[in-house]
Amino acid sequence: MSRLALHGGEPVIGDGNALPSLFPRVIAPRAYDYIREVLDSGFLPIRGMASRFERRFAEEHGTAHALSASNCTSAIHIALAALGVGVGDEVVVTSVSDYGSLAGILAQRAVPVFCDIDPDTGNMDAPRISRCLTEKTRAIVVVHWQGLICDMDPILEVARARGIPVVEDCCQCPLGEYKGRKAGTFGDIGCFSFDAEKHLSTEHGGMLIMQDPDLYDRAFKFSINRGGYHVEGFGRKYDMFGYNYRYGDMEAALGLAQLDILPEQNARRVELAARLSERLATIDGVLPLRIPDGSSCLYWIYPVFFEMDRFEADIRTIGEAIEAEGIGGASHVPYYFFPDSVEYLPWDRMTFRREEMTGALSYVSRTIRWVWHDKYSDADIENMYLAIKKVADYFRR
Ligand SMILES: *Cc1c(COP(=O)(O)O)cnc(C)c1O
Fold first, then answer.
1. Tell me, what's the pLDDT at 333?
2. I need a surface site. Which of 4, 75, 276, 328 has the fewest CB within 10 A?
3. From the alpha carbon of 75, which atom of ligand 1 is closest?
């Protein structure tokens, strides 16, 4: 058996066949025209290009409204504020996600109730959400983790039965589909990120989509007018606390152009992931992500599941070994909202029970993942497979 790169052996993926980086990001040709348009206009009309990008984004999703924001951390904050979530309200949120899914809850001084996940999908589901609901629940933030759309029908059934609004965190699945409908159109508000590493990047930025005009008005007032409104003959008045979370026209110009190339990039991402999944399924003890019927995954990250009782090493060592074989960033980094990661929360005063989070603990103790994108070649996919196979073969009992 060949020596692991971790132990000084030759890596499967070396300098000669290194995987391509997500950066530099591919920029759609029309971005330069749109950005020039903004520059030539001298920023008139105000929010002109942002409104254009919003309209286009709403059209793509078939929603009445879209509102751009500085990023998705702020978009989720805006969504919760628009829904009236405030001090002491409980908001159910997944236990495995980016910090941006959580920050808005805390910013509203609401109480996060961390929902366990299905260890095989990485997502929250209706039964697990049900267990988190109390009299005080005012919203559910559903995160489509990895880009895999949650099983929304049962989730909506549970939420609607109790009249609880749903916010969808679609940062990892822009234009992703579940049962023929787009992510972000199931709940009351869908939130998106245009961060440098996200599918559609404008370096940073975010978006909210929704149907309800009142929600839109409240979101606009909170995020752009800083809680203010105009009174004829008086001027500005403020009847609530608000922010300046506005997105720029220059970024919107880039976003408008990037939207043109997103479907093709998404399709390539999915195709490449499917190919790797097919290869990985042939390795004893290694499982690719299984996509439930009716759903889809746009793979912001590509997760690999290890059946840990089949291997002699722990997941951290397996991740380090795979990273050493040349899959950058594949080392084991738990992305979760637990006392050891979000240190400042008053965990002992919360309902959180670590031992009850069996799905999340299982997920994080047997998966590795790395950033996925559409620049990989067929040879890269084969090399990823070979790198993972080498490590799995080495550590298998
Ligand atoms: C990236 C991300 C966020 C945060 O988005 P920003 O635009 O960086 O604020 C939130 N939730 C998920 C699931 C993400 O992947």
1. 76
2. 328
3. 9
